[in-house]
Every structure is written in structure tokens, then in C-alpha cells.
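Please describe the entry underneath.
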Amino acid sequence: MTSTVPAGSPAAQPHTGEAPGSTAVLTLSTIAFTVMFAVWLMFGILGKPIQKEFGLTDVQLSWISAVAILNGSMWRLPAGMITDRIGGRKVTSAILGFSAVASFAVAFANSYHMLLVLAFLVGFAGNSFSVGVAWNSAWFTNNRKGFALGLFGAGNVGASVTKFIGPPLIAATAGATWFGVIEGGWRLIPVIYSALLILLLVLVLVGTPRQDRMPGATKTTAQMLAPLKELRVWRFSLYYVAVFGAYVALSAWLPKYYMDVFGVSLTKAGLLTALFIFPASLLRPVGGWFSDTFGPRKGMYFTFTVMLASSALLSIPNLLGVGLFTLVIFALGCAMGIGKAAVYKHIPDYFPDNVGSVGGLVGMLGGLGGFFLPPLFAYAQQWTGAPTSTFAVLFMLTLVCMLWMHLTIHAMLHKQAPHLSDHFDAPSFTKEK
């Protein structure tokens, strides 16, 4: 592996085992990503109080979450490439600092248009995912990468943090003023996140190895982008739209769905949404282990089968009460958790020297799916008058992914020997037609 670190330093040791410092990188990057993911998606639970204060329509509210998701997705490709070039420690620190300032500013928003701008800036925190993937991939050996990346990806559970702390803090502090300038209620939440981000910035700078690993330090931009010409990269990206983009969209959309369809309180809606977020996040390490052990193809088949069945049930109007709806949503979250890890297991296997660029593109397009889906959910409901149209959209997306995956595998097995039937793809140097 190419590196600019001095010979003999921990970061320069051969990958015969997990290098000293790898545990610190995994631990602190995961904690930082968890908080930044919470910041990225905080408008999912803050949306209802914001909508009430500013008198927003459902479509206007959906755009606040959407622009945050957009900015947390569109820079994932360059962020991953920069991480490979200069190291994850520097890039993670920069995102933490920027996000802390943007989050603090949200507390002082006084108009819808100002909210849109600040939500967009706060969304930059979402790019921490591709940074963490490239950073951890550089520090772990192949036989542990699936688990390590799955554990890091479990930071998606940050989407549930605001669901838990938001409603009680909003209710308990409404009408109060802190330090003479910070209002209570929903405006207090971004201030708390800002303080946490600054704390994590200090911990990352102090607790992770100064001599970082930079596998792309000597590569040209053209060399880093070369794998993106392969069709399989774009196919993996579509899978990630279904398992991650839809996860992001539903994390922001479900609290409002629960309140509008089932008439529950904001607090209960947040807790019920967490029953989707937890398995979709915490099962990611399990998905990584499964992919390390049995291969990602089996994980993807499981994921898409469960997602198709779940979204089909959820698409039927007036079929499910709140209890059964939550149970099916839980199953959907389990499938997404397995699938997110399975998608990313492919990247270091097939593109070991370009994890930053390939992982960045897959993450970027997956995140952009989270940008397009909330407005699409809102428009679908507006056009059909049925809230369950949300899940009809998800069903169609999953069906396209399942068919493309199955037809690709069938075509490859038709061309290749039967003993290759357990291989998801041909080697990465083989052009995919």
C-alpha cells in the first residue's frame, strides 16, 4: 500500500495484522459519525415544531430535510478521494468543525428561506460517511474490513438520537431562554449538537494516530476515478439508493407519517421511528460479518426479498394498524441493515486501491436517493391522496434493484463455469457488459 508516512511508524507497518491505532480510528470515527449523522437528519424530528412555527406546507417541510440530505451526499465522492490522499484524521476534523458552526447557526433561523440555507450547510455533516469508510479501510486488513466497515456504518443509529432526546427537550425547554440569547424548544437541539461536535473534534485530534494512512497519496485524480468507468460501480450505487437512501428518507419521513396517519404524539412518533432506525443501523456489523463469512450476494438476496415483501404490505391502504405497521417497519429496517453492509463489502474486495473514490460515489448516489425520495414521497401522496404511496415508491425501487441484480448474476453464470456460482461478480479487472 502506498503511503507517505515514515518507515517504521505504526501507520507504515505491513498489513499482517491490525496495526496499533486502528482501534482508536474505528472507535472515534464511529462516535463522530454517529453524532454527525444525528446532526444531518435532525430535521426529521424538528420538522413538526418548525412547520408549526413558520406555517409551512408538507412539501415545504420536505424540502428542508431534502436540502440537508443533498449537501450530505453531493460531496461524498471528492471527500472519499481527499481522504485517500491526505488521511481521514484531517478530513474528519474539518467536517466536525464546519458542522459545529452550521448547527449552532440553525438556532437563530428566523425565516423559511434562512432555514433552507442553514439546513443545506448543516447537511455537510453527512459526507463524513465516505470519509470514515476510506479511513477505516486503510487501517484494517481484508479479513476484518467487512466487520470494521459494518461497525463504523452502525453510526447510522445517530438518526435515532434526535428522536429520543428531541421531543422531551423541546417540551421541557419551550419558552425558556439560555444565556440571554439561545431560545429553548426546538432551537436548543442544534446548540447541543454543536457543543458535542466541538468536543469530538478535540478527541479525534488527540486520540487518533498523527501518522495517518493515505493509500492515494501518490495517485493522480485520473487514476482514482478510473474504476468509475465500470458498470458494476453504478449498479452497487443503485443498490445503495434502495438500502441507504430509502433508509435516510424514511428516518426523516416516518415521524410525520406516524403523527398524520396514526394520530400519535411527537414523542411517541420518535420512539416508534427508532424501532426502524435501530435494526437498520445496529445490524450493519452483523451484515458485515455475514458478508465476510458467506459472501455479500446472499446478503443482498435476503435484503431485497424482505424489502419487497415489507414494502408491498405497507403499500396497501388501511391494511395495517399502528402495531402491525411498526412490526413490518422493523423487518424492513433489519433488511436494510444487512443490505448496507453487503453493498459496501464489495468495494474493498473489488477496488482495494480505490476505496475512497468508489465508496465515495456509491455513498454519494445512495445519499442523493435520500435527497430525492422525501419530496417524491410528498408528491406521490399529493397526487394519490394515499399516505401509503410512500411504500409503493419504495417497492418499485427495490424491484428494479432486485431484477438488475438477478439478471446480472444469471447472465454471468451463463457465461462462466458453474463452480463460480458463488461469486457475485467477475474480478474487478474484467469489464462488465
Remarks:
- The chain has a mean pLDDT of 83.
- DSSP finds 18 helices and two strands in the chain.
- The longest strand covers residues 177-178.
- Strands lie at 177-178, 182-183.
